[in-house]
Specification:
- The two termini are 34 Å apart.
- It is built from three helices and ten strands, in the order βββββββαβββαα.
- The protein is globular.
- Helices cover 19% and strands 47% of the residues.
- It has 183 residues and is an alpha+beta fold.
- GO terms for molecular function: hydrolase activity.
- Keywords: Hydrolase.
């Protein structure tokens, strides 16, 4: 069923650090009016990178995660800087966080975090044909790089230190994409 988007009668904005909090006065097709809140990022989006050493092995990074106050395994990820494309941002983040560049970079799709209240999108990128190259990053300490076999995803997703939803989704999507490429 296709529905008409609600009519926006007004938007009130408030500063919320790296985000802008918006309150929307909405009217739905049935006449019902509601107020919704959403967070808008101030940047240009983000990238989540699946760096493949080979078609069977992904590179994960272990870094401090302030939200849960522990070290987490996850994919290379970061903001897209002004003037960068998702491909350029993915290559830069890969060099900063994992110490590799990529000769082949493919954007697979966009992922959202919580689309019911956030506008943030991250581009899922597969990086292949890697070579060693490091750029200085903004992390307070060097990140540990951990190779992981894609056929062991069932073990990875059960680890307590691998909990970020974008990383989990990205690995399964990339694995299916690789299977389709191999056909």
């Amino acid at each position: 069923m296709s529905r008409r988007l609600p009519t926006i009668h007004g938007i009130t904005e408030h500063d919320a650090g790296p985000y802008r909090l918006e309150r929307l006065d909405l009217e739905f097709g049935n006449g019902e009016r509601r107020r919704y809140e959403r967070l808008h990022g101030r940047g240009h989006g983000a990238v989540v990178v699946v760096p493949l050493i080979d078609d069977d092995t992904v590179l994960l990074v272990r870094e401090y995660a302030a939200g849960v106050h522990r070290y987490e395994l996850g994919l290379v990820k970061g903001r897209i800087d002004a003037g960068e494309t998702p491909l350029q941002a993915a290559d830069r983040e890969l060099k900063e966080e994992a110490g590799y560049g990529a000769r082949s970079i493919t954007v697979l799709r966009a992922l959202t975090l919580a689309p019911t209240y956030m506008s943030h999108e991250a581009h899922l990128v597969v990086a292949r044909d890697l070579y060693p190259e490091r750029l200085p990053g903004d992390e307070p300490e060097e990140l540990e790089v951990v190779p992981w076999k894609l056929d062991a995803l069932h073990e990875l997703i059960l680890r307590e230190d691998f909990s970020e939803g974008r990383s989990i989704a990205a690995l399964f999507i990339a694995r299916e994409w690789l299977r389709m490429q191999a056909r």
